[in-house]
Write a structure and sequence with these properties.
alpha+beta, Elastase, domain 1, 2 domains, 4-stranded mixed beta sheet, 3-stranded antiparallel beta sheet, 6 helices, 12 strands
Length: 279
Amino acid sequence: MKRIPLVLLGIGLVLVLTACPQTPPSGDPYDITLRFTGTPTPSQQVAFNAAAARWQQVITQGFASINLNFPANACASGFPAFSGSVDDILIDAAVVSIDGPGGILGYAGPCLTRNSNDLTVYGIMEFDSADLASLEASGQLDEVIFHEMGHVLGIGTLWNYNRSLLSGAGTPNPTFLGTNAVREWQALGGSGNVPVENTGGSGTRDSHWRESVFNNEIMTGFLDSGANPLSKVTIGSMEDLGYSVNYSAADPYTLPGPAPMSASKTPLNIILIKPKGSR
């Protein structure tokens, strides 16, 4: 099966900014607020909104609203200032010219986490307009946006941020230790802890499920042609991070046999900058 080559630079930087929590209402749903900058087309905005809507189906409980106040470029160059209340996460979504088709796809990750649970309250997603147009033309834009929004929420970026969910980083056999993801992995027929990617650059290995095991699951480091399903393993990992989740939001998924490694397969090269603080 063909793997689509993507080069993406992910940011896991967490900033120390002013943040004042407020008490959440009972039964508060999880809300993702998108703030668009740059030149996203209407159809690209639809893809961002669709990804947010699906993650809101996965995450079922909101947190306390937080008043944030930070200047322009606080997380990365080109992003505007913000002052106001956030419920539950603010994501700056930018489409800009970076380096043309086939180069760096963009940047994505958490910028500010909550003191109360070390989960993202502000993050960014920035994509190269040329690459985004190509993905849209190939029908794979929605899956890429959903995948990268998962990194903003903490998949692969917050696993070991004031947690110990990743074991063996940098070794031939990194694994994810969260009890909920492990339960779902073993329900699929796996044994031991969840295999994490052990090949590729610093933004691919240790931050995705292992491609040779999971093949086309949405949170491996490779985008497959055809379906890229969201498994209960990924949803379980979100519960391990601290979110309340809905397992019925998963797609049908079974573990494939070992996937043959193709010379044409290109890893999703994400450089993850580890969190530095929270408020």
